[in-house]
Amino acid sequence: MNEYARPIALIALASAYIALNAAGATWSDTFLGLILMLGLLAIGIPHGALDVWTHRHRSPGRHSGIYIGLYLLAIAVILGLWWMFPHAGLLAFLLLSAWHFGQADFERWEISKGHMAWGTIALGMILSWHVEEVNPIIGQMGIGSNALDGLLQVQEELQFVFTAGLIACGIAALRMKHLTWGLAIGLIGLTPWIPVLLSFGLYFVGQHSASGWHHLRQRLGLSSKDLWIKALPFTAGAMLLIGLGIWAFGNPEAVQSDATVGAFFMLLGCISIPHIFESHWFLMSTTKHRR
């Protein structure tokens, strides 16, 4: 039953938000946002901040200082390239995120094929049903007006494609009698009625980061307390980098402005891309050992 408690709680939380919002509760956004912010600080950022430790685990004897230096260099190079080529940078980030999300979920659920499709559908559902919210944010990342107008023109087609994909995933989960995947599909199915930032937070914190934390606990053989302690200096470093990026590129006087949100996701993306590859190498190396 413990396996199902978290996804059921996520669906209950999302459903409660939708009901409260429909009833006109003005505090519903703040309430859900605070819960997700706590989750982001508890496991969202820390699960990526443990990359140094997963590197040590899969490559014993190698110098961590060199790894950290190369990691920071990769972040700087990615930021520079994204700044110069914003359309290619955003597309690469979305595709890598879909791959990463799907891999983390399917590794946990022990499903052997289709993780890229699942990650694409989950991310596509969140974004395609909120194009009008997404456009001002990605516009702050340098995405041109022609591309933004094009997304608005095809949003209904995108919604149809990703909804059909989600239904296909539901059918596959039923045939496999895979309840945990089915519950995740149910959560994604509620995202059209939840603002984009909260929808993304529900999936990123409640599903993806929880899967990543599960892999770290199981494959490093450490408790959550030990993981938090090991992650703490790198979590603080990641938050400092994001904070400096928001100060430089965003609007620190307006936390909810499109400029601030755009800068936050751009910096988070630059930090996430090296993490995506490290997570893949870690999962592949530990999967081989477990087999």
Using only CA atoms, what is the Rg?
A: 19 Å
Number of strands: 0
Strand content: under 5%
What are the secondary-structure elements, in order, as H or E?
A: HHHHHHHHHHHHHH
Largest sheet: none
**Class based on secondary structure composition and strand pairing:** mainly alpha
**How far apart are the termini?**
26 Å
Mean pLDDT metric: 90
Our count of helices gives: 14
3D shape: globular
* Unreliable sequence segments: none
Classify the oligomer.
Answer: single chain
Helix content: over 70%
Summary keywords:
291 residues; mainly alpha; 14 helices; 0% strand; globular
Give the helices and strands, then pairings.
Elements: H1 2-22, H2 28-44, H3 46-49, H4 51-58, H5 64-84, H6 86-109, H7 115-128, H8 131-139, H9 145-153, H10 155-176, H11 179-189, H12 196-220, H13 224-249, H14 258-290
Describe, in plain words, how this protein is organized in 3D.
With 291 residues, the protein is an all-alpha fold. It is globular and about 55 Å long. It has 14 helices and no strands.
What would you say about this model in short?
It is built from 14 helices and no strands. It has helices at 2-22, 28-44, 46-49, 51-58, 64-84, 86-109, 115-128, 131-139, 145-153, 155-176, 179-189, 196-220, 224-249, 258-290.
